[in-house]
Amino acid sequence: MGLMPHCVEETAIPVPCKVNLRLAVGPRRADGYHDIETLFLPLPEPADVFSIRRFEGPGDIDFMCSDPELETDDNLVMRAYRAYAAATGHAPRLEVMLKKRIPHGAGLGGGSSDAAAMLCYLNERAGEATLGADALGRLALALGADVPFFLQDSPALATGVGERLVPVDAGLGGWHVVVACPPSRVNTAWAYAALDASRASPEKPGAQCLTRAFDDNKKPFCVTGAPMRNDFESVVFAAHPEIGRVKERLLAFGAAGALLSGTGSAVFGLFRTRHAAVVAMAQLSGNGPRVFLASL
Fold this sequence. Notes:
Blueprint lengths: L6 E22 L5 E25 L2 E5 L10 H13 L3 E8 L10 H14 L9 H11 L12 E4 L4 E4 L8 E6 L6 H13 L21 E2 L2 E2 L1 E2 L2 H7 L1 H12 L4 E4 L6 E5 L2 H11 L5 E6 L1
Parallel strand pairs: 1-10, 3-4
Antiparallel strand pairs: 1-2, 2-4, 2-5, 5-6, 7-12, 7-13, 8-9, 11-12
Helix pairs in contact: 1-2, 5-6
């Protein structure tokens, strides 16, 4: 009877999410992708949690998840582990439990963030096989357009398909973010196709913000000098009016600005005080959306 492998490390890692303070989408390119310009803001809540046990010697990854639907070989965590192993030869024996708290299909980047967390975990323990920032970024981009952003922990302006990142100061220190996640899910491929179709139709111009938040001077609320904007709001709110109503409610409850995140279905509101955010949370809770509070 063989000896049980020896556990050399047990680690718990919080995995943050993101929202898009702006998201402008360009025309469809010849390769099928779209150029975008977006302002990513990392949020500490909602967050997934990795519990990782590392054993002596090389091996493979034994992956478990609180959502059994995600326990597949195509999961981004598995793909990140194997991509890193193929690129570096570093393949420690891991037992991974992922507790999912970031709602799936909400535009909060949960899968991308999980993949980035796995890449960072491996790279910090790879010794001589450690990848430099550029090489790690290329590996992340091959997994998904949002994954490179999660290798860092600060707001960033992203262009291209989202891979060209410039750190920025969003000027939101001390603010509070209420994230509301309706039960509806929005398919990303559908959202891009619907936006393209709306722009091709003169009756449906698209790319318009259906509701606007205003500051005390009755001007559109701005972050880093530009109004909050998400080009997907027109098509997503038309197809899912219940999501648009969540944005309207956040504004009615005192958010200085509110916006769809990514292609949705999550909607977030920015609040100057924690008290106002907590009151808004209480108003939204129990009416369908899952609601989270993050302090910046």
